[in-house]
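Hey, sorry to bother you again with one of my protein questions. A protein chain has come my way and I'm curious about its shape. I'm sending you its amino acid sequence along with the backbone structure tokens. I owe you a coffee for this, so here goes:
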Amino acid sequence: MSNVAELPTKDTITLIINRKKVESVTYVFKNKDGNKIGEYLNKTPATLSSQSNVARQFKQIVNPKGDINPKIVNNQFAEVKQLLQLHYENELSVIEQEIADRKQAEQEKDSVKLKEAITKLQSLSRPLIYIGSIVEWFTAGERNNILYAFTVCRTSCLKKSGICNMSG
């Protein structure tokens, strides 16, 4: 389904969702020739009021002379709002699926990295020295403190007490 709603005048409204803040929607009005005649940043279609900038642009397009009964124009706007809301919800579900797919790919990548790390650590005869070397490369002068914290955490996890015992 497209994110474009056609108006009774053959003009169109295109819905563009901000992917970082999905409550923020841009409404682009184009005439029947495809030329942009207005662009407005507003909230979701369901929250548009009859006094919003989107509604005013709609009314100006549909009823430029003001000779149509305002009730009829408001009803037409309500119908267009419903159509835009459907477009919004469809686009939102696509965005949510993309985010879920991206998270799953990241989790799979992390899982592969974790398996590689476990294999590497199991192949070492002195894993603490290896971890200390890596820590030393990425931190300045904190090797001993980090190794101490790692050892304490690992020991308490093995004993199921202290840091790892979340139940109390």
Summary: The mean pLDDT is 85. The helical segments are 53-62, 70-123, 127-138, 143-159. The beta strands are 4-6, 12-17, 25-30, 36-42. The chain has four helices and four strands.
